């Protein structure tokens, strides 16, 4: 473990911080956990992990986040990809670009496209898969420290987005307290693949379903995930499905843009019947959204466009909208129906 204090040059408004290069998982975890215990808080950000840094450095530059110590975990031995039978085990420090070109991923459409349709080639070369699933919201009000109303930054202060520009915000798992969207494409594919994360924390290791990793904004806008202080994602476990799959991303421009809506579908049709179906929705949820209502409508039923329409309508039935997001439920319904049709090749 090596460390040095850093003073950002020319930015007297940015707090000095200490940079620590971690040599092993256990000591990196202890450093973050012990800081949290000392300050008796559950989700510390005074000492924090950093790997690719594509989210954290933005937040620091914007003046939204000022950690006292960054623990760089990019040199930890977490950059391997292993395949055993029907399971892909991906180190958390694997970059998005490296995962996308792995032989087991190039033919897994939903995973490959969720990676290649995200960000830019430069960012995909820097960003790690562990950091991607834990990325913070892109809400412009959250990322502007001059905005005083933001329950995610300052609990109890309100939400500027509800009456502001909200085109890219969420309609599921939200209420008037926070409508921030979870921006990861990869995490949407992971929930449709029933993926899990392995972690190393102060109480040892555990495995968490990706559907249980994030916290909905309508439950606690100030908390992004269910990890405890010092808990580090070490690997992703991704089951390789015996099914067809696909990822459809709808956005305002063709590249380097977040989703307005997206749908990750994994499905297998046997004798015209949906024997397996799993769906993730992106661009619409405060968490990577597992479309369980739609799946209940579809599972075991004869595949048809009418059934797809019914399933999509059921999933969006309780959408919470503000003027800026009023178009989203209909767009999300159409996105899901289109992707169900494409993956199953059912057209009538
Ligand atoms: Fe803050 Fe959430 Fe409102 Fe954005 S949507 S301003 S993150 S409370």
UniProtKB/TrEMBL annotation:
A Pfam family it matches: CO_deh_flav_C
Ranges where the FAD-binding PCMH-type domain occurs: 12-243
Record InterPro entries: CO_DH_flav_C, CO_DH_flav_C_dom_sf, Diverse_Substr_Oxidored, FAD-bd_PCMH, FAD-bd_PCMH-like_sf, FAD-bd_PCMH_sub1, FAD-bd_PCMH_sub2, Mopterin_DH_FAD-bd
Keywords: Oxidoreductase
Highest taxon in the source lineage: Bacteria
The protein's name: FAD-binding molybdopterin dehydrogenase
Species the sequence originates in: Nocardioides alpinus
